[in-house]
Amino acid sequence: MRTIALLCLSAFSFTALPALADGIKPKPVVVKSIVVDGQAVAPGGAIGHIIGLKKGGDGFVSVRAAPTTKAAELDRLKQDAFVIVVIGGTDWEKATFIPVIYDPKDAPGKPTMEVCKIPESPPYFEGTYKGPCKSGWVSKRFVEVMAD
Question: Fewer CB atoms near the end CB (10 Å): N or C, the chain?
Answer without folding.
Answer: N
